[in-house]
Amino acid sequence: MNSSPIAAIATPNAAGGIGIVRISGKGALELASRVFTPVGSKTPDKMNGYTAAFGKVHDSNGDIDEAVCLVFRAPKSYTGEDVAELSCHGGLFVMQKVLRAVLEAGAAPAPAGEFTKRAFLNGRISLDEAEAVMGIISAQGEQAAKAALGALEGSVSREIDEVCASLTASSAQLAAWVDYPYDEIEELAPEKLSATLISAREKLAGLIKRFDSGKAIMQGVNTVIAGKPNTGKSTLMNLLSGYERSIVTDIAGTTRDVVEQTVRVGDVVLKLSDTAGIHETDDTVESIGVKLAMKQLQQAELVLAVLDGSEPLSDEDRELLIQCKNSKTLVIINKDDLGCKIDEDEISDLCSTHISISAKTGAGRQKLEQAICSLLGTGDFDPSQATLTTERQRACVQKAVICIDEANDALISGMTLDAVTVSVEDAIGALLELCGKTASENVVNEVFARFCVGK
Ligand code: GDP
């Protein structure tokens, strides 16, 4: 593994009170000593781990800034290597100058995610825990942050390790029985093995279920605001986002392209697209918008279908509700302040969940938020339980479940124990990949490519 020193600005690319340049790798402390002169006598290479010194950072032209140098000694650091962190005044120019000085002193610029990747390669954290770091950074709500912190502290790894251990014990017993059928090995009871497989499957299925309901909280929900022109979609989007984002006019068809916005509703992040209405049009530009809206509707994880309650239902509204039948849809009867002309019985027949609001006055906003959370099922999400944080992890668990099912089917249908063993081994393989114990270099690189520089 490459452990030559790397460096990057670890704080955001913006002016701030403090900015940190992080250096990690073999020789990191000697390198820090070349650019940092402490007020006292101990240069970073002489300092103990977990200690700090005040001094000045300089390059070949002279002093750059005052700084505090924090020293971590391998293996007790984030990366597991020697680490120095130079905390300076957080001006962008100064930070870049400090980084340049460090690079000139011999460090290589750290690629995105390199610090956490080294922590993983040095065995400090597992791959799922590394992914949880990103979960913490990107968390936009209390619940998401708590679940990601739990995963970073090993809640997912522990649950996966437990399942792996029970499958490995079964697999070892199976292998012994296949290899030495005439030896005195405890007889393999298919019922006992099947019970182990079922219990492992249940635990994994629980993880998948929690990921699906936690996804809205952890990653946000792709949401489409749909409805014919002038029903108040842009006004609703503005109500949810809290400021004027879409153009609101009373000329039908103003919102021609897809406008996107991220808003937080309770603990859920909605990635909103406000679309052109779905209706017949001869206007070329508008018809492109309509097609785009239809496509978005099919791909959405949540649809907010907006109706104008001040008018009776039109055929276009009915068409929209039919289009939304297979999506998770909340029907919003807007313009409640003007009185409702929509037939309650008809609307109840056409959709399962509907509420009345006034996007213009904001009346019913709270009811709207509650309806969204209850439709997404986020009310039941418990962040203290182990929660997978990425689709990659979910795919590994899903693969393990399929393999366990195959093993169980093989067992029940009386196939050879070889066949059962192969499927159990495949399930274990998928779980080991989740934690990164057997993940290929490509998978590992892909995980860390999503990180930011300096993390
Ligand atoms: P869109 O074409 O569906 O995006 O509709 P807009 O948001 O542009 O709204 C069309 C018109 O309806 C504008 O004049 C809005 O001010 C008005 N409008 C939107 N919501 C309400 C509401 O709740 N009550 C009333 N009275 N007017 C509204």
Describe the 3D structure.
By secondary structure, the protein is of the alpha/beta class. It is about 45% helix and about 20% strand. The chain contains 15 helices and 13 strands. A 7-stranded mixed beta sheet has the order 3-4-5-6-2-1-7, with helices on one face. It has a 6-stranded mixed beta sheet with strand order 9-10-8-11-12-13, with helices on both faces. Strand 9 (about 260-265) and strand 10 form a beta hairpin. Helix 6 (about 155-180) runs antiparallel to helix 14 (about 415-435) and helix 7 (about 190-220) runs antiparallel to helix 13 (about 390-410). The radius of gyration is 28 Å and the shape is flat. It starts with 5 loop residues before the first strand and ends in a 6-residue tail after the last helix. Residues about 245-255 have low confidence and may be disordered.
What are the segments in which pLDDT stays under 50 over at least 5 consecutive residues? Answer: 243-257
**Can you count the helices?**
15
Catalogue the ligands: guanosine-5'-diphosphate
State the shape.
flat
